[in-house]
Amino acid sequence: MADYYLELKGISKSFPGVKALDKVSLSIRPGTVHALMGENGAGKSTLMKCLFGIYKMDEGEVRIDGKPVVINNPDEAMEMGVAMVHQELQPVLPRSVAENMYLGRFPTHNFGPIKVIDHKKMNEDTVHWLKQVGMDFDPRTPLSDLSIGQMQTIEIAKAVSRDAKVIIFDEPSSSLSEKEVDVLFGIMEDLRKKGVAMIYISHKMDEIKRISDDITIMRDGTYVGTWAAADMSTDDIIARMVGRELTNIYPAHDDHPSDVVLEVKNVTSIHEHSFQDCSFKVRKGEIVGFGGLVGAQRTELMEAIFGMRNIASGEIFINGQKVDTKNPRKAMDAGVGLITEDRRGNGILGCLSIKDNVGVSIYDKNLNAGFVLNHSKINKIVDDSIDQLSIKTPSMNEAIANLSGGNQQKVIIARWLANDPDILIMDEPTRGIDVGAKHEIYEIMVKLAQEGKAIIMISSEMAELLGMSDRIYVMCNGHIRGEITDQADMTQEKVMYYATQF
Amino acid sequence: MKAKSFNLKDFLINYGVILVMVILVIFTSIKSPNFLSSSNILNLLLNMSSRLVIALGIAGCVITAGCDLSAGRMIGLGGCIAGVLLQREDYAGRFFEGGKPMNLLLALCIVMLITAAFGAITGFFIAFLDVPPFISTLAMMEIVYGLNLIFTDATPLGGYVESYTNLATQGFLGIRWIIWIAIIIGVISWFIFNMTRHGKYMYAIGANPQAAEVAGVPVRTTLVLIYAKAAAFYGLAGFMLGAKSGGASVNLGLGYEMEAIAACTIGGVSVTGGRGKVSSAIIGVAVFELLKAALQFLGVNANAQWIALGIIIYIAISLDIRKYVAKK
After folding, report:
1. Residue B245 has pLDDT above 50, yes or no
2. Which residues of B touch A359 (CB under 8 A)?
3. Model confidence at A300: pLDDT above 50
4. Predicted structure pTM score
5. Shortest Cα distance from B196 to chain A (angstroms)?
6. Residue A420 touches chain B, beta carbons under 8 Å
7. ipTM over 0.90
8. Bridge partners for A337 per DSSP
9. CB contact, 8 Å: A328 with chain B?
10. Cα A311 from chain centroid?
């Protein structure tokens, strides 16, 4: 094997309560594409952020071309020839291609006593670098006129223009068409010939096998191993990504699903890249898990059912009746509740009290004379739910923002329980919550199922998905790729297999 | 839980503005005993009543993290409509020649309905077409002013029937009618803010509009109602100001929207949304009017009073923001 150009050795990083990286190593040869793989939360992004100095690593060493280096921020990384093509690009959309290429390092020339931007040089240089990656745009085109794939090539051209020797591609193909992927791979082939070392992060097995030379697999913040891509089958990769011991911390539950309450038929988004042709059923008293990788469009599908997103075609039946959930209000009236993934963004009413946060969805049902709020009844409902869900707070008048994540989540659950839906959708119900509160939320879920509620749980945590679900649907790339009904079939490998059926 | 001990810093942050006011009132009344004379206090209260009605209208908008720049021009429109409907039959410069003055209550209803209709349009653009409140109310400000200019031909109105101007000079139980109006609007606002779902929805939208929608709040219709209700209040305030001054012109209420927004924020209606009470509007308006009167009594240059008002806004808002920033 040739010498390594970039070496990461024994890198560890802890966040309060979690060890995100535990002595992870990664070595990249020049002129190769090195695939970095792992489930959601395996630590790939954290490792890259440590490399770029966005996070400060607790221990470990970075070597470039054999020399140990310290990188404190992305600018320094760039100076050392390390560039990243982001998963979520952060371009300045209304400005031109050239301005985006040279943002922060505009070429200038003297105009009398003042320095002004040299637009001519900037545009000419942009054309030059774009040619290097086989593109010829007018450098004055606003970036917003370009497709995501074209924007990525601009990012690559930017990296090349700064003489990058290492380029990291963080899920570049997730929003690209097949043709655009071909273009991207063409550029990567060229870079390979020029001796650039590339790290390619993706979940798409066929692409990995097509483009990469080596594969490094991570799992739960640890380094699993590195292999030559040619020696690895898809099954090998999956087995190594998921091969963890499952400890059963989940409450035992013996659910007895009965009648179908929710049936979704061929629901398709108005957006091409979102959920497509999704059909599934949920029964009373059942916890149905939705697995998949981040970006599989599970959240989007559920938000559409709840009336937060538009549906181009397809039908939703609740208790056998076709419903049109065109806004959350209509969905609630039809008996659906949604606990969103982004608690801060669209869950809590931060500056309001616990009482107001629970009450907001039930004011309609607690009125005197048709318009005066029945405060004593609402107080009782809120008080009871604080007791039942053991929400830790001095009083119901405490602002929800002052509670811990777990208690905030319980308040949101209380909001929905007060509203008494038949179907409760819980999107990542335990994200960002400590272990104790997690367990309490699992117990609440089991209790609800036993009371006959239908529960849909989106979870990106494999153990939670397998431990809590009576049945699992797995989504990938907007499609439902598989349904696992038999408890014996509920394995990490099976979920991961369906989750990577792009 | 933590023991509650007296904390000077917290006390100042929470009650700083009120403290400054109390000191200013005491100081002014020592320097100039007339400050606390009954005629001056009555005058203060009369000034405060219309300002409070405006502030309570704007408070609803600010609580939803919006604002309303059209308030001043709506007041002008309300004042002028009330004016043309309530001129004496024998007044020489009568707007509608040969007509009869309208019933007082009917005229008030017409004024409030017309301004509310314009407010509903403002709200429609904000709620259904996602026009930012700043822009939507700015546009309505211009439209209402233009309509009022055309309507009145920019001619000042006067010659009101006595029953109308009596609202500012006579009263019930020793309290002038326009002060009664302010009290009633204060009670109604308190009721709406605290005892109806509309009020609770208003706070929810201000706290987090996305979360409110997910929780089933009818965000759009609530916003339209808030701006319509606010505009009805501006119309009422125009009606009150007309009664007090015995006349109206297109420039009635000019700049009052800024005073009202400032008063709300001084009193503790948070411009970031979700926070604010009826008492905040009352405190804010009181602080503003007391300050203006005190500076006048202390003989401060009338032009310099503007600077003092600006400084008070800076202090009040910086303190108010501290309440929420410091906790993080």
Report:
1. yes
2. 200
3. yes
4. 0.83
5. 5
6. no
7. no
8. A424
9. yes
10. 22
